[in-house]
Amino acid sequence: MIKRLRAALRPYDVVESRPGGYALSVRAEDVDALLFRRTARTGEGLELCASGWARWR
After folding, report:
1. What single DSSP character describes residue 30?
2. Residue 18's pLDDT band (cuts 50, 70, 90)
3. Of 8, 18, 33, 35, which has the highest C-beta tally within 10 A?
4. Calpha distance 20→39 (Å, rounded)
5. Pairwise CA distance, residues 34 & 28, whole Å
6. Omega prior to 19 cis, within 30 of 0
7. Using an 8 Å Cβ cutoff, are 15 and 2 in contact?
8. Residues 29, 35: contact at Cβ < 8 Å?
9. What values do phi and psi take at 47, rounded to 5?
10. CA pair distance 50, 57, nearest whole angstrom
11. Helices 32-42 & 44-56, crossing angle to 10 degrees?
12. How do residues 30-52 score in pLDDT, each as one tens digit?
C-alpha cells in the first residue's frame, strides 16, 4: 500500500518512514482543511468564494 501511495505522490517525496509507521511531511499551507480553517477565521474565505464564483461564471 505504501509503495502505491509513494507512486501516486511522485515526484513529491512526502512519505517518511518513522518508527511505528509512516508520516506525510507537508507544509500546513498545503493542507486544504488547515487553509479553510485559517481563511474562515480571518474572514478571507468570503472574498475567496466571491472571486471563485466570479471566475466560474
Report:
1. G
2. very high
3. 35
4. 34
5. 7
6. no
7. yes
8. yes
9. -65, -40
10. 11
11. 110
12. 787 887 787 777 777 677 777 76
CA distance 14 to 43: 30
Query: What are the Cα distances from residue 57, in Å, to 14, 32, 46, 51, 54?
Result: 36, 23, 17, 10, 6
24 close to 17: Cβ distance less than 8 angstroms:
no
For 4, the grid coordinates are 502505491
Distance CA 55, CA 30 (A): 22
Cell numbers representing residue 15 in the block: 512519505
Per-residue cell: 3: 509503495
Place of cell 485559517: 38
Burial class (CB in 10 A: 0-12, 13-18, 19+), 45: middle
Q: Which three cell numbers stand for residue 37?
A: 480553517
